[in-house]
Specification:
The protein is α+β, with helices and mostly antiparallel strands and 199 residues long. It has four helices and eleven strands, in the order H-E-E-E-E-H-E-H-E-E-E-E-H-E-E. The longest helix is centred in the N-terminal third of the chain and has 15 residues. It binds flavin mononucleotide. The site of flavin mononucleotide has 20 residues, from strand 2, strand 4, helix 2 and helix 3.
Length: 199
């Protein structure tokens, strides 16, 4: 906290007298934890390649423009969902609600479709009009997208899409990344003073 106080003081001083502050040692830091304070939503991003359905949890979906109605999703290149979206050019986005149980995040976010058929025996599903699966029970909205551009960012691809369908499914509040960490993800248990890791 001492560092944070000094950081705020030094940034105030720099703002008050930018010229005088030139050359002064201005405190700089990048705390990755601060990015958790973005009010990201929580989503299931799904795709369909022929008979194969798949999906993964993401927090990086956002609206870009209203007219035309465009959204973006950012997906790790290692994900099967990335491969399927790149190939088919289409996806569905389920906006997950606060009551979504941890098992849904585990099922879609902690295992890859490369190793498991995530929709095999999974009953809570509907299909958007582009034929892609979504989660009616745990979503307050579903949005279908058709890719118009994609941008390469080393480990991830930023996909830009036209919204082809968008429906409100319930009035339940959307889960945020912060809500997920505070209320959905189980806290690590401590046994014998040791932390029991929970992903
Ligand atoms: C809370 C949470 C947020 C996540 N956010 C993203 C994200 O924004 N982008 C991404 O590519 N993966 C994200 N992931 C990781 C993927 O869901 C995970 O790698 C998944 O196993 C990929 O599955 P797939 O290979 O079947 O596509 C997130 C996972 C969790 C649990």
């Amino acid at each position: 906290m001492q560092f944070i106080k000094k950081y705020i003081e030094s940034s105030r001083a720099a703002a008050a007298a930018p010229e005088a502050g030139k050359g002064n040692a201005r405190l700089l830091m990048v705390d990755p934890e601060s990015l958790f304070n973005f009010s990201y939503g929580m989503f299931l991003l799904t795709s369909k390649d022929g008979a194969r359905d798949n999906g993964c949890i993401i927090n990086t979906a956002a609206q870009i423009t209203v007219s035309p109605l465009k959204i973006s999703v950012t997906v790790n290149k290692a994900n099967l969902t990335h491969h399927m979206i790149l190939k088919t050019g289409e996806f569905a986005l389920s906006i997950l609600t606060e009551s979504t149980p941890f098992r849904v995040f585990e099922h879609f976010g902690f295992q890859s479709g490369k190793d498991a058929d995530k929709f095999s025996g999974y009953d809570d599903v509907g299909r958007t009009s582009n034929g892609i699966r979504y989660l009616p029970e745990h979503s307050n909205s579903v949005i279908a997208g058709k890719i118009t551009e994609f941008h390469d960012y080393c480990t991830h691809t930023l996909f830009i899409a036209d919204v082809t369908e968008a429906l409100i499914l319930s009035d339940e509040p959307s889960a945020t990344l912060r809500y997920y960490f505070d209320n959905i993800k189980p806290k690590p248990r401590r046994e014998n003073g040791k932390k029991d890791e929970v992903l």
